[in-house]
Amino acid sequence: MRAIIAAGDIGTVQRFEATFCIPLLRAGDIRWSRDLAGGALMDTGCYAVHLLRHLAQSEPVVRSARAKWTSGGVDRWLTAELAFPTGAQARLTCGLLQPKLISIAARVLGSAGQIDVINFVAPQFFHRLRVRTAGGRRSERVAGSPSYDYQLRAFVAAVRNGTAVPTGPADSIANMRVIESLYAAAGRPRA
Predict the structure, then answer these.
(1) DSSP states of 101-145 as a string?
(2) What is the dihedral of CA 7, 10, 12, 15, to 10 degrees?
(3) Is 115 exposed, middle or buried (CB count within 10 Å of its CB: 0-12, 13-18, 19+)?
(4) Where are the domains of the chain?
(5) Average pLDDT over residues 72-97
(6) For the chain, what percent of residues have pLDDT higher than 90?
(7) pLDDT band at 189, cuts 50/70/90?
(8) pTM of the predicted structure, to 2 decimals
(9) Which fold has domain 2-186?
(10) Residue 9 CA from chain centroid, whole number
(11) pLDDT value of residue 148
(12) Stretch 91-118: mean pLDDT, rounded?
């Protein structure tokens, strides 16, 4: 996606969208525990936040956020509007329990076209990347191993060879700053 954006195929990016919603119906699952940092934003939303930051190559400002909270103070669904320094806007939606069964998608809207992706987190399963411009439409497939294989290879290379990992501690801290800002904007209940 970043290569397509950098090539200018869709013009100047105006808006990013990332959605990661899954069903989590087991009541006793640890992702429903506030004490264990459970909730939609920490479980699925963290990937959507990272994707938006990765594509924009900058840090967003949270404009607004709203969430649906369980009685235990865990977000089961959260949506937010963000803004990047370039002027591009973004929407993030994440959920563990919502009307739609599964929704894992991303969209980048530019001045000359758009990119739509289905399943940005696990392209080894069913996925689709479509680019639409005035010149036409094209679909691409991302060939490769499961996402976790790449993570394991990066970890092994870091341990064995001292190779830098693609997303180091600074990136993780930056992602958590956005997550904390989202929780604050959504009015996370006090513990």
Answers:
(1) S-EEEEEEEETTEEEEEE-SS-TTSS-EEEEEETTEEEEE----S
(2) -120
(3) buried
(4) 2-186
(5) 95
(6) 71
(7) confident
(8) 0.92
(9) Dihydrodipicolinate Reductase; domain 2 (3.30.360)
(10) 22
(11) 84
(12) 92
Nearest to 67 by CA among 28, 39, 103: 39
Tokens 């429903």 appear where? Answer: 32
Q: How many CA atoms lie within 13 A of 101 on its CB side?
A: 0
> Do 40 and 76 contact (CB within 8 A), yes or no?
yes
Q: How far apart are CA 70 and CA 181, in angstroms?
A: 20
Beta bridge partner(s), residue 107: 17, 116
- Per the prediction, the chain carries an average pLDDT of 92
Sheet holding 136-140, edge to edge: 61-69, 75-83, 89-95, 13-21, 103-110, 113-118, 128-133, 136-140
Inform me whether the pLDDT recorded for 100 exceeds 90.
Answer: no
126-161 residue pLDDT tens: 888 999 999 999 998 877 788 888 889 999 999 999
Place of tokens 């939609």: 40
